[in-house]
Amino acid sequence: MGTSLLALAFVTGVVDTLSFLGFGDVFTSNMTGNVVLLGVSFAEGTGPTTLRSLIAFAAFLGGLAAGFALADHVFRRSRRWILAMESVLIAVLSTAWMLGAPIDAMTAVAAVAMGMQSAVVERSGAGVSVNYVTSVLAGMLGHLTLLNRPDAALALKAGIILSLAVGAACTTAVLQAAPVWAADLALPAVIVAVLAFPKAR
Fold this sequence. Notes:
Blueprint: H1 2-24, H2 31-44, H3 47-74, H4 80-99, H5 103-123, H6 134-145, H7 152-177, H8 186-196
């Protein structure tokens, strides 16, 4: 399970960086940041940015709802199939980015994929998020302040934060050097997550 979570955290780093730097001031995974950007763009009167943030928010909720429905009623014994669906969406996003598809359409695809990913991780009982690090940091510090010895769970949380950061750094570097390939970074990581995800979870 740990390998899958680390791979998904990397995907989050890639997709959110692509969204923020490539699509323009929008997050498709980190909804806290997206809501902040939505409020800022609304106050500043920047219509296209406000619309894009709304699209990301609505699409993420749609992906979240679909992910939960599939996890609870269709793929209860093998939720890795939902990650396989996410990989298809990531492949669509990668192709769309290479072809220069409309930004709003790519925003929606990315946000649906991230919503589905969030739902799968939540229903897997992992007890940790791969879409945002605030709760992960809180869990780490809560563990340490109780003077508990570092354990595998603490190491996993640290790994998730690092993996997300590495995904963001790699995407930034590719956007600067060869932007057409930036979206391709996520697909191999999703495939790793699918293959490493427990069959009965």
